[in-house]
Amino acid sequence: MKNELVWEKIKMASSIGIAGHINPDGDCVGSCLALYNYLQENFNEDGKKQIDVYLESCPKEFLFLKNATALKQTCAPLIHYDIFIVLDSGSIDRIEKQAQELFYTAITTVTIDHHISNTSFAKVNIVDPKASSTCEVLYGLLDSKKISKEVAECIYLGIVHDTGVFKHSCTTEQTMIIAGHLLTLGVNSAKIIDETFYQKTYVQNQVLGRCLLESILVMNGKIIVSTISKRIQEFYKVGAEDLSGVIDQLRVTQGVEVAIFLREENVQEYKVSMRSNGVVDVSKIAMFFGGGGHIKAAGCTMYGSVYDVINNLTAGIEHQLGKEV
Ligand code: AMP
Ligand code: MN
Ligand code: MN
């Protein structure tokens, strides 16, 4: 019902803003561009609507997606959008500062998301924590007969990334049915999987190796922790987007319940990534420290020495594991 209302508002709107979270991942870029392209192709044939998409950046392996170079970071003067849609973000502080301002000054606001930690911050909140990805939630809102090959590529990429190529437990029958339909629209699955997910640069592989080499096991091997300092990131000239595979490799270590990866962003400031193999709900721990995410994949930012950060996180995990035995 509420979804029909959103489509009515989209039809009537003369300006539409779209935004996704900072440090955009495949699901974020995929869902933002899928919606942008779908709206341009089906609701803006005469070009009269102003449709903009705000994203911090686009990782270069996603640049083949249609209109990936049309992304904006800012606007001046401030645009008062008729409708502003936030994708793949559990809370409003996950999007960039000026995009937040655009959200607050818009007439109608919508969030489309799949984070269990979503705070329902918009007027219309379309959130399905059981969905594999925001792209899957978005697909459910679109007219499947009006999805072009280019929109299909965006959605497929988002699903591939948030399911870790259909291997995470968030992958359901519905996910596969959607992916199957997207293939019939001409999506080159092998190319998207290889070139956007598995392919790494030489230096990305070097850093991955280093993070694995320096990882430590705690709590009888139930927790694995790896840290990368700012100095090492600067030495290899790598950023967050180069390190996205590290946490997945840590998680598949035999016997591990929770993997933790700490990326030093500034002195005494760590971006925390956590992955669980099922027993521990890492979104609870991330939310406790001001972040969010899903039961098996969550993150937050923490301050203090690396030892304090690890101790605080492992205490929360131990507490949950303790309840299990
Ligand atoms: P990451 O470890 O950065 O890949 O994040 C795992 C999941 O947790 C993603 O779905 C993120 O959207 C979410 N997440 C990560 N960091 C934060 C944060 N600071 N606040 C809220 N959610 C987060
Ligand atoms: Mn995301
Ligand atoms: Mn997502």
Essential attributes:
single chain, about 325 residues, alpha/beta, 6-stranded mixed β-sheet, 5-stranded parallel β-sheet, 11 strands, about 40% helix, globular, binds adenosine monophosphate, binds manganese (II) ion
What does this structure look like?
- The protein starts with a helix and ends with a helix.
- The mean pLDDT is 96.
- α2 (26-43) runs antiparallel to α5, α4 (134-141) packs antiparallel against α5 and α5 packs antiparallel against α6 (173-184).
- It is 41% helix and 19% strand.
- It is of the alpha/beta class.
- The structure holds adenosine monophosphate (AMP) and manganese (II) ion (2 copies).
- The site of one manganese (II) ion has 6 residues, from loops.
- One manganese (II) ion (MN) binds next to loops.
Describe the structure in brief:
This protein is of the alpha/beta class. 41% of the residues lie in helices and 19% in strands.
User: What is the mean pLDDT?
Assistant: 96
Shape: globular
Largest sheet: 6 strands, mixed
Strand content: 15-25%
Q: Kindly, what is the distance between the CA atoms of the first and last residues, rounded to a whole number of angstroms?
A: 44 Å
Protein topology:
Blueprint: H1 2-12, E1 15-20, H2 26-43, E2 50-54, E3 83-87, H3 97-105, E4 108-113, E5 124-127, H4 134-141, H5 149-162, H6 173-184, H7 189-198, H8 202-213, E6 216-218, E7 223-228, H9 230-236, H10 246-251, E8 258-266, E9 269-276, H11 282-288, E10 292-293, E11 297-303, H12 306-324
Parallel strand pairs: 1-2, 1-3, 3-4, 4-5, 7-8
Antiparallel strand pairs: 6-7, 8-9, 9-11, 10-11
Helix pairs in contact: 2-5, 4-5, 5-6, 5-7
Bound molecules: adenosine monophosphate (AMP) and manganese (II) ion (2 copies).
Residues 27, 88, 114, 133-134, 162 line the site of one manganese (II) ion.
